[in-house]
Write a structure and sequence with these properties.
Rossmann fold; Dihydrodipicolinate Reductase, domain 2; 3 domains; seven-stranded mixed sheet; 22 strands; 25% strand
Length: 478
């Protein structure tokens, strides 16, 4: 291929991506249809991002997929009477082009593949969401909710509750939302309304409520009703403490972004989200590590049977640790997080059993906190009932990442050059590093990357949608 042909092909892809972009916006804003490409959302994607996302096809299917091939499907989708849903156009395009040389029959193919998405359902009124706390997870949830917001999205962030602050508090919080040392600049515009104590993010009016405890808040006075309160503080982790939120006017349900204690249901979305019932008032979204490992452990147990195992977590430091040596009630955590690897405990291995009871008592776990600000790795050393080898095991996990009920949670890579910063912004609960997989007979070692902030926040969003009864079906169904 000549150098000129490379440039011409790139320019053609850019032109087609520019045609695709407004169609994606039209589907999402007007019909409530979120278009995905192999699990990656294309909502608000820039032209270059659309092209780059198409290159994921080879990772999952072994073949290429170009914008030229997805454009006919996206055009046809824009002309269909669709109900609110998620549509993975990558999977559909891969199936469509397997035995075709032109786009003839694309409408018939989509109609047969998306029968359930033409059920006459219309976009419902969005449900109110309140974030109680505005730390790392709270700000990332804000970014995700603002990104998704539109006439077709069924959740609406209405307010954030924080402790009473000094003068300039609101501007400081807005600044933290605008600029993030790990996750980069906020994608859009943020305006501070100091008089009304609010932040307007991409047109979303977010009321800031200053209170030192839940009972001080009356949400109805801000026009907020039947809201889901997402507690990001971790101050209360049992039913008694979290029930304080339910005593507030305008609050209907509570979601905890930390492992729950006692009888609180700990949910790893994709694994046991079926336990969420309409009558549930308090749910936990478990921990980032539990969310990262449980879907992959379920996939392993379903096919090979896990008899026992040990999970070692290499985890980025968190705000709970000290920047420099100082008193800390936890063992070893008083030593400088920026200078040391710190051996500590993790309850993630035991917590797996709450979402996946068949593994109860079979796993042990420890954690090493390391001097990186984000992205962690779980190393799962597993003993199996059935023997396997590296190639077979990787082929199975790759299949789980694209064509299973766990495809929204599991990602897969075989890059031999990938490092932790490459996973910042990953929307998956866990990413299997296939290049590092070890498998021999009835024993294997899996290396699982995860963005312990952003990937976890995406799992929390899934739980929020399920709790409020507004989660849309993803097509094609598995």
């Amino acid at each position: 291929m000549s150098p000129e042909k490379h440039l011409l092909d790139w320019q053609t892809s850019q032109t087609i991506a520019e045609i695709i972009s407004p169609l994606l916006g039209q589907l999402y804003r007007q019909k409530g249809v979120e278009v995905l490409l192999f699990g990656k959302t294309l909502v608000n994607a820039a032209t270059i991002d659309i092209i780059k996302t198409h290159r994921l096809a080879r990772r999952y299917t072994g073949t290429t997929l170009s914008p030229e091939q997805t454009l006919p499907l996206i055009k046809a989708l824009s002309e269909m009477e669709l109900s609110p849903c998620r549509i993975d156009v990558g999977q559909l395009a891969h199936e469509f082009w397997q035995d075709r040389e032109d786009e003839h029959g694309v409408k018939d193919f989509l109609h047969s593949s998306l029968l359930g998405a033409m059920n006459g359902q219309t976009v419902s009124e969005p449900r109110d969401v309140v974030l109680y706390g505005f730390g790392r997870i709270g700000r990332l949830l804000t970014r995700l909710l603002v990104e998704k917001n539109g006439p077709g999205y069924p959740l609406r962030l209405r307010a954030v509750v924080v402790r009473g602050g000094k003068k300039g508090d609101l501007e400081k919080r807005a600044s933290l939302l605008r600029r993030d040392s790990v996750h980069g600049q906020f994608n859009g515009s943020i305006v501070v309304d100091e008089e009304r104590k609010a932040i307007i993010a991409n047109g979303n009016y977010i009321q800031f409520i200053y209170a030192n405890k839940p009972e001080e808040v009356d949400y109805t006075s801000y026009g907020i009703n039947n809201a889901l309160v997402v507690d990001n503080t971790g101050v209360w982790r049992d039913a008694d403490g979290l029930s304080q939120h339910l005593g507030c006017k305008g609050a209907e349900k509570v979601l905890l972004t930390a492992p729950g204690k006692g009888d609180i249901k700990n949910v790893v979305f994709g694994v046991n989200d079926n336990v969420i019932q309409p009558e549930d008032k308090i749910i936990s979204a478990a921990s980032c590590t539990t969310n990262a490992i449980t879907p992959i452990l379920k996939a392993m147990n379903d096919k090979y049977g896990v008899t026992s195992g040990h999970i070692e977590t290499v985890h980025s430091f968190t705000n709970d640790q000290n920047l420099i040596d100082n008193f800390h009630s936890g063992e070893r955590r008083g030593r400088s997080a920026s200078l040391n690897m710190v051996l500590t405990e993790t309850g993630a291995a035991k917590a797996v059993a709450k979402a996946l009871p068949e593994l109860a008592g079979k796993l042990t776990g420890n954690a090493i906190r390391v001097p990186t600000p984000n992205v962690s790795m779980a190393i799962a050393n597993l003993n199996l009932e059935k023997g396997t080898d590296k190639d077979e095991l990787n082929a199975y996990l790759r299949e789980m990442a694209i064509k299973s009920d766990l495809s929204a949670q599991i990602d897969y890579t075989e890059s031999t050059e990938i490092v932790s910063t490459d996973l910042v912004g990953s929307r998956f609960a866990g990413v299997v590093d296939g290049a590092a997989t070890i498998a021999q007979d009835n024993r294997c070692v899996l290396y699982i990357w995860y963005d312990n902030e952003f990937g976890y926040s995406c799992q929390v969003i899934h739980c929020m949608e399920q709790m409020m009864g507004v989660r849309y079906t993803t097509y094609p169904t598995k």
